[in-house]
Each structure stands twice: as structure tokens, then as C-alpha cells.
Amino acid sequence: MLHVELVLQGLVNGSMYAVIAVGLTLVYGLLRILHVAHAGLFTLGAYITVLITNATGSLPLAVAVSAVTVGVAGMLVYRLLYEPLLDRPPYVALIASIGLFICMEEGYRIVFGPYGNSFDTMQLTERINIGPIGMAAADAAMLVGAVVLLTGLGLLMKRTRFGVAWRATVTDPAMARAFGIDTVKVRYVNFFIASALAAAAGALVAVLNNLVEPTMGSVPSYKSLAIIVLGGLGNVGGTLAAALLLGVIEAYGTIYAGSFLDRDAIAFVFLIAVLMVRPQGLFATGRS
What we know:
This protein has 11 helices and 2 strands. By secondary structure, it is mainly α. Helix 1 (about 1-30) packs parallel to helix 5 and helix 5 crosses helix 6. InterPro entries: ABC_transp_permease, BCAA_transport_permease.
């Protein structure tokens, strides 16, 4: 029974990492940019969710508004920050992204205060029992929400014209343009989707922890950057597998190594060990 509960907890943690990291993978796959400011959008999504839920009493409405608002914010980040830098070396965009992330954290601290915000009424506090196995409703929401979002993303990429256009643009942008694909539109939609996923992850984490604070995006962002390397840069399927694997490793590590390492340290020890042995990632496809 302990192992079942550990696997479930690992999948909950891994689901959160997956939703964040897949957004990073979408951006990297299209532009070859490490979008560190993605973590700032994750935090923005959490703040919007808490504020609107407290104002309206409706968590679903808050999550929907958060996803749309942060999606638009992501498009603005692309237009104002990345688009002018596309002809520069990748490290220029990376430095700009790190700078934006720091500015966003400081902005949240100034606007919302340094001590964090929480829901006026705790959300999803019930406990769900399936036979002998029980889990908090917030954990179940994280798991189900991630499955729905990632399944929807998979269908979008496999079954729609945008998905075909996205894959063509990733493979060969010049050829995609020659066949009439609007690669600029693809980039904007890509940033909207990736940022909306970050907002959804932020909303779910806010519910899970009942706390939103200015620096809440820092640790998930570092882990997500490592996860997309572990999964093979630009490989969406590899990112999902790496995120879930990391979540399970964390859950087991907390039990068996938690006396001398905290959860985040366990995660980074695992990631460093794997990347030292296989720096191209566990699921690399051969493209860089």
C-alpha cells in the first residue's frame, strides 16, 4: 500500500512538472530559446487564480480567466522580448529571459507584498477514497487536470491544422513558409498555448498549497529546465516521461533519503547524476 501511495504522490508531483515543462518544450522546439520567464507566467497564473476566486467565489472561472490572461501575456512576451532577438545568438534571448523573470518576481513582491496570498476559503479540501487508497481532492485535481490538459494538447498537435503547421515549422521553417504556412502566427499561438499551460499549472499549485508567493516559480523553473534536457530538448513525449519519472523519484526519495536530503535536493541530485552520464538526455531524438 505504501508503494501505491508513493507512486500516486509521485505522479501528482510529476504532473505539475509536466504541465510546466511541456510549455518550455513547445517554446524551445519552435525557437530554440530557453524561456526562463515561463516561470514568471506560472506565478502570474497563480496570483490571478487566487484573486479572482476570492472576488467571485468561483475557482473554475478563475482558472479560465487566468489561462486566457496569461496566454495573452505570453504572446506579449514573445512580441516585445523575443521577436526582436530572433536573429541574435540564443544566449542573448536567454539572458533577456532571465532578466524578465527577475523583474517579474520583484514586480509581484511590490504589487502583492512579500509574504504571499492565499484563498479566503480553502479549495478542494475533501478527501477522495478509491477502495483502500485515499488522496486529497487537490492532489486528484492536479492529476486529472494535467491529464486533461496534456491529452488536449496531444490531440491539438496530432489532429488539427495548427498541429501540422507547428510540426512543419519546427522541422523546417523555410520550407513551411514556402508551403504557405504563416510561421509568425504559429509562434504567437505557440506562446499562447505554452503560457496558458503555465497558468493552469500555477492555478493547480496554488490550490494544492493554498499559498501564492513572488518566488514560487523559482524551483519549478529550475527543475523544468533540467527536465526538458533530461527528456531530450524539444521532445514533448520525452519531457512528459522525464517529468513523471522525476516526480516518482522525489516521492520515494522523500521516504528513503528524507532524513538527510529535502525533496528538492533529491530531485537535483537525481537530475545531475543522470545528466552527467547522459548529457543529451534520456529521450534525445538526435536533434539539438
